[in-house]
Amino acid sequence: MDLIAHVNRKLDTLASHSLTRRRRVADSACAPRQVVDGRELLAFCSNDYLGLAAHPQVVEALREGASLYGAGSGASHLVSGHSRAHALLEERLAAWIAPHLEQARALYLCTGYMANLAVLTALGADAEAQIFSEALNHASLIDGARLARAGVTVYPHGDVDALAAQLEASQAATKIVVTDSVFSMDGNLAPLPALLALCERHGAWLVVDDAHGFGVLGAQGRGALEHFGLRSPNLVYIGTLGKAAGVGGAFVAAHASVIELMVQRARPYIYTTAAPPALAHALLASLDIIGGPEGARRRAHLAALVDSLRAALRFQRWQLAPSATAIQPVIIGSNDDALRAAAALQEQGLWVPAIRPPTVAPGTARLRVTLSAAHGIDEVARLARALNELEKTAQ
Questions:
Q1: What is the pLDDT of residues 265-324, one digit of tens each?
Q2: Using CA atoms, how far apart are residues 252 and 209, in angstroms rounded to an integer?
Q3: What is the side-by-side order of every strand in the sheet holding 350-351?
């Protein structure tokens, strides 16, 4: 019982700082109108940026994939779990990203978290390597850096000059700069052109986690590299397929030699059962939509929703973070105030999550508003009215 008491003290400490998290049960498909714990809510909290999670074409492809390949893969990729669906998806993704890489090859993994762990532990697998990690990187990148044998140096958020000084001072044989493209709690973009120029000057890898850019950024939805018009053999690109693509998993794209190293040495890839082939089959349908006329229309509508929301919000005390992406954070400050605001919105049938430390810095608790191309302009206007009124009346 002493062991349980110790655990309970940890839980009590979290509760005393308003840091307890609670799961909610969704009773319907991911969509703007979602039944949650038995009640319909207008949701502004998913990363389904293009509204493809419940798209009929993608759902049908998933059903077709299950009929072709069954429910599961049965083994890891290097044993017997690598299906034709996985192979076709990797070929398609390599072609998708080929304009931005030299001798591009792609590798599909079960989750974005695993992809980030796999990249950094494979590239940073020796003590002569050094990882330069952005201060606001996602937890999976932080953990990947910790698990690698390389030394780790953190550079301040968006500070290219600080990174330049760190690279200049480094004597590491292998230098790896790693950054999110779109920062998930702030919605702003990393200065990728400047970072790539630095990496090319210092012979460093630039690892880009484009979890919140793939499918959304760029004229064809090919992500941050297309958005900035980047091409380099120094790039290692990670795209998440459970957000704008609407299904699940992630891929790493890089020079064929880098991918082969991951196949041979990346433990998160080697020692796990392959994702169900039906998911890979469904993702082929997602890519058809993202890269076609419908994807372009959805991205244009999403951009219009972002502009509409930002134009409608009139805060006096709360702060709307500077973001041109689907992630629109409303910074409130204290944990308690953010929780109260989220609860007040839910009473009105609006689902907007409160984000607290350690996900964000202490004193910057916020509402993380995320928009989807499946939202209507009237639904975004309803959210804006509620937020404006709530800020006026909040203590």
A1: 999 999 999 999 999 999 999 999 999 999 999 999 999 999 999 999 999 999 999 999
A2: 9
A3: 33-36, 39-43, 350-351
Of residues 266, 265, 210, 190, the one with CA closest to residue 96: 210
Reply yes or no on whether the pLDDT at 1 is more than 80: no
* Token reading at 215: 């499918």
CB atoms < 10 A from the CB of 37, how many? Answer: 10
Give the whole-angstrom CA distance, residue 142 versus residue 132. 10
**At which residue do the structure tokens 């916020």 appear?**
366
User: Which active-site residues does the annotation give?
Assistant: 184, 212, 243
- Domains in the chain (CATH in brackets) are 24-54+293-393 (3.90.1150.10), 56-290 (3.40.640.10)
Q: What is the mean pLDDT of the chain?
A: 96
Can you list the alpha helix ranges (DSSP code H) found in the chain?
2-16, 56-69, 84-97, 112-123, 139-147, 160-169, 192-202, 224-228, 256-265, 267-270, 277-290, 293-312, 335-347, 377-393
Report the SS3 class of residue 174: strand
Distance of CA 15 to the CA centre of its chain: 28
Work out the average pLDDT over 126-150: 96
d(CA 328, CA 131): 30
Q: Give yes or no for a contact between 305 and 323, defined as CB atoms under 8 angstroms apart.
A: no
What is the per-residue burial (b if ≥16 Cβ within 10 Å, else e) of 132-167?
bbbebbbebbbbbbeebebebbbbeebebebbbebb
Give the pair of three-digit tokens for residue 199. Answer: 């990496």
- 129 phi and psi, to 5 degrees? -95, 155
Question: Is 391 within 8 Å of 315 (Cβ atoms)?
Answer: yes
Residues in CB range of 346: below 8 A, 6 or more apart: 41, 352
Percent of the chain with pLDDT over 90: 98
